[in-house]
């Protein structure tokens, strides 16, 4: 529909004479509408579920199948797997606007009213019945399930005040206070964290899922609602806080498992899209690819680490928050140093530990070591992994030898790029090795410092050199002790990056 809302029919009589003919609107429910629009987009090759990355070959085909089958479905996965984002993009498969009887709480189809209120309006006004229009955003109703949700909240209940105000009998249908489900008629109704919903409330969903209607307590009335029901759940919740009762689970057409990014490239793309990096700042900030990859690798390492609770998962929000904190730390340093441009360094990743510790649940071993210590280990492991990917087969013997001969360098977090670069130039062979990172002599000082520091952190991660808490890099004393005791360097050290 290309016409603006202001040009659409405003009475039932005008609606009958428009393109919104009775046959089409009367018999076309929300599931049929979404299915038809999905078929059209599939045929034309349009983008489906914009903004949802990493699910192109896994989750999205299953969601498409569920929609084509006219199923209610559930997205089952750990936290931070874009379940809510995916649900909300379903509105892109809805018509731009649909008509309803103005003033009706249940947003009744003018050609197929379900409530007594709508039928009364039609009987009284006929073709002069006022028509309003619903946009896709108005047709998406989302509820976060909590244990205190009641049947009245979801379905409805008697409203004595309404009965008294209008002088109606308490048993009259017009005295019903409608809950969220009836108010979501002709819409998508989404429930987040379904297991948190009390069992007796889940029972209240049976009718709408099987027979397509709700029965409101105390009334001999049935409302044949038109809704698509979509749920999310975290497998951890099945035992931690509640469960989906078996009869309800049986009525859900499709159970679709979500997942974290399959590879680093996918993760980096998601974090790039979701993080707040384009900010108004007096400092020009250029984030190197290798820093982005280290940040993303932290999440991958955490998901595999035995000290981190795998049942809880490691949300994709972790690298997003870390990247934002890393950029902020670099921005703060540049402002203090009076720099107009800068690049985040690995030291900024360590400064972003608060963005890591709050997003990982630790097992007993991790609790003993402490959240900060585990987070530092994860950063070191991530640096080592990314370093290996960039410098596989490249030797650093000259750089390591510089430190073995007594050289040392201190890279303080607060130091400006210019003075640090002067120190790094003195390390034999170091800056020559930054080319695989896409950094050369024509790059900015901040970028060259970031690349050189990354190499030093990588060598430290692989125990080729040492570093203390004051960020002073020096020779690895353990290797010296081993060489002195055995008369030769460790075999493992000789093999790596030589």
Ordered list of secondary-structure elements with their pairings:
Elements: H1 12-16, H2 22-27, H3 30-44, H4 59-68, E1 73-76, H5 83-88, E2 98-101, H6 116-125, E3 131-134, E4 140-144, H7 151-154, E5 156-158, H8 160-166, E6 176-178, H9 180-183, E7 187-192, H10 199-203, H11 206-210, E8 214-215, E9 222-223, E10 227-233, H12 237-240, H13 246-251, E11 254-257, H14 264-274, E12 284-285, H15 289-304, H16 317-337, E13 341-342, H17 346-351, H18 354-357, H19 364-369, H20 371-391, H21 397-404, E14 409-410, H22 417-425, H23 445-461, E15 465-467, E16 472-475, H24 477-486, H25 491-495
Parallel strand pairs: 1-10, 1-11, 4-7, 7-10, 12-13
Antiparallel strand pairs: 2-3, 5-6, 8-9, 14-16, 15-16
Helix pairs in contact: 14-15, 14-16, 15-16, 15-20, 20-23, 22-23
Oligomer: single chain
Low-confidence stretches: 487-498
**Percentage beta strand:** 5-15%
Q: With helices defined by DSSP (H or I, 4 residues minimum), what is the helix count?
A: 25
Q: How many distinct domains?
A: 2
CATH fold-level topology of the largest domain: Rossmann fold
Mean of pLDDT: 88
Tell me the helix content. 40-55%
């Amino acid at each position: 529909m290309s016409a603006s809302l202001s040009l659409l029919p405003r009475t039932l009589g005008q609606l009958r004479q428009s393109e919104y003919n009775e046959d089409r609107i009367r018999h076309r429910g929300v599931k049929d509408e979404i299915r038809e629009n999905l078929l059209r987009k599939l045929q034309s090759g349009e983008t489906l579920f914009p903004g949802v990355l990493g699910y192109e070959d896994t989750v999205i085909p299953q969601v498409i199948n569920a929609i084509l089958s006219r199923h209610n479905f559930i997205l089952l996965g750990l936290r931070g797997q874009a379940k809510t984002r995916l649900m909300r993009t379903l509105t892109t498969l809805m018509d731009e606007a649909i008509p309803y009887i103005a003033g009706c709480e249940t947003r009744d189809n003018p050609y197929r009213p379900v409530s007594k209120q709508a039928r009364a309006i039609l009987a009284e006004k006929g073709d002069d019945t006022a028509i309003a229009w619903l946009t896709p955003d108005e047709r998406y109703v989302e509820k976060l399930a909590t244990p205190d949700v009641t049947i009245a909240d979801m379905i409805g209940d008697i409203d004595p005040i309404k009965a008294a105000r209008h002088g109606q009998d308490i048993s009259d249908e017009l005295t019903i206070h409608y809950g969220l489900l009836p108010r979501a008629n002709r819409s998508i109704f989404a429930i987040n964290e379904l297991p948190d919903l009390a069992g007796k409330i889940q029972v209240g969903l049976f009718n709408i899922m099987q027979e397509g209607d709700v029965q409101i307590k105390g009334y001999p009335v049935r409302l044949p609602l038109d809704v698509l029901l979509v749920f999310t759940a975290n497998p951890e919740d099945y035992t931690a806080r509640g469960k989906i009762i078996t009869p309800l689970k049986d009525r859900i057409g499709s159970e679709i498992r979500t997942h974290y990014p399959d590879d680093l490239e996918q993760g980096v793309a998601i974090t790039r899209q979701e993080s707040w990096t384009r900010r108004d700042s007096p400092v020009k900030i250029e984030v190197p690819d290798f820093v982005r990859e280290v940040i993303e690798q932290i999440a991958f390492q955490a998901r595999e680490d035995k000290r981190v609770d795998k049942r809880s998962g490691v949300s994709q929000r972790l690298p997003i928050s870390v990247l934002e904190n890393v950029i902020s730390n670099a921005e703060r340093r540049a402002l203090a140093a009076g720099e107009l441009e800068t690049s985040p360094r690995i030291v900024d990743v360590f400064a972003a530990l608060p963005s890591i510790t709050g997003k990982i649940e630790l097992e007993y071993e991790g609790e003993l070591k402490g959240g900060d210590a585990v987070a530092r280990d994860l950063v070191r492991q991530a640096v080592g992994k990314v370093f290996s990917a960039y410098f596989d087969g490249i030797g650093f013997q000259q750089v390591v030898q510089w430190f073995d001969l007594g050289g040392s360098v201190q890279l303080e977090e607060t130091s400006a790029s210019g003075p640090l670069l002067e120190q790094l130039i003195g390390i034999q062979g170091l800056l020559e090795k930054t080319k695989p990172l896409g950094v050369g002599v024509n790059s900015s000082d901040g970028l060259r410092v970031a690349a050189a520091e990354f190499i030093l952190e990588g060598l430290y991660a692989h125990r080729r050199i040492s570093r203390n808490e004051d960020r002073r890099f020096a020779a690895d004393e353990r290797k010296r002790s081993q060489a002195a005791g055995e008369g030769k360097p460790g075999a493992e050290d000789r093999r790596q990056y030589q």
